[in-house]
Amino acid sequence: QVQLQASGGGLVQPGGSLRLSCATSRSISSFNVMGWYRKAPGKQRDFVATITSGGATNYADSVKDRFTISRDNAKNTVYLQMDSLKAEDTAVYYCNAQKTIGTFWGQGTQVTVSS
After folding, report:
1. How many whole angstroms separate alpha carbon 29 and alpha carbon 72?
2. Would you say 54 and 71 are in contact if contact means Cβ atoms under 8 Å apart?
3. Half-sphere exposure of 55 (CA within 13 A, CB side)
4. What are phi and psi of 74, to 5 degrees?
5. Nearest-angstrom CA–CA distance, 32 and 52
6. Smallest Cα–Cα separation from 44: which of 94, 114, 113, 7?
7. Which residues are CB-contacts of 105 (< 8 A; sequence separation ≥ 6)?
């Protein structure tokens, strides 16, 4: 059983920053890809960023140059540093982990960007 625990969400003003964390119950080195997705009210869940076991990263155009995904293998944790936040970044953010045998999701963490 793979468990993913996301944390770090909250309320922040436009232009502010937050760092999300996703702690796993297994070694993150065992996952081919880990990433973050988000779901805004009334919209589908969208891709935000991924990082491979080799460290390669990929970002949605809407967050490129503002968000940074990283991983700490020693802590079995993946992070999403979010800077220059905008109102349109408001969403529930979900952690995702992919192995050959399947894809796993954590519970969401709410991010609200508002003045």
Report:
1. 10
2. no
3. 2
4. -65, -30
5. 6
6. 94
7. 4, 94, 95, 96
pLDDT in tens, 10-58: 999 999 999 999 999 888 888 999 999 999 999 999 999 999 999 999 9
Q: Which residue has the tokens 């936040």?
A: 85
Q: Are strands 10-12 and 109-113 parallel, antiparallel or unpaired?
A: parallel
Tokens in use for 35?
A: 């990433």
In DSSP notation, 6-45 reads EE--EEE-TT--EEEEEEESS-GGG-SEEEEEEE-TTS-E
Q: What average pLDDT does the structure give for the chain?
A: 95
Of 78, 68, 29, which Cα lies nearest the Cα of 48? 68
